[in-house]
Specification:
This is DUF3429 domain-containing protein. The chain is mainly α. The chain has eight helices and no strands. It has one domain. 77% of the residues lie in helices and 0% in strands.
Amino acid sequence: MSDLLSSANRPLPTRIPRAALLPGLLGLTPFWALALSTLAGTGIDPLLALTALIMYGAIILSFVGALWWGLAIHAPANAPRDTLFVWSVIPALIGWFATLALPDVGLRMLMAGLALQWVLDGMLMRKVPELIPSWMFRLRTMLTFGALGALGLAWWQLV
């Protein structure tokens, strides 16, 4: 029990743990594989690839929003818990609406949703630094910009 209590007082790691980095980077694979499939003759129907890309983007946007639900549960007293709980479902709604829109609009909605979530994550990290380890925001930055690049490439192909 004393080990558990003493570990709670240790500083948060600043280096991105490999256990988070590798799955995160692997999560970019569908973004890029599907975005590139809309460009090159890969044997995958471009409309199917585009639809799959939008659906995957919606799932990931929902996932990053849901992180705020988990943060709210463990938030210290000075954190805006109500805001965390409420916002945690908004990205899922943005993603869902993106799946219902025309592909060019859906891609832009996903890009806007991911960018907005990244901005809000940064704001939350500055407001309540003990809530989000610095490595998590660095990882989110890499993954967000990786996803935005793939979505932007697919959108550019459409216009």
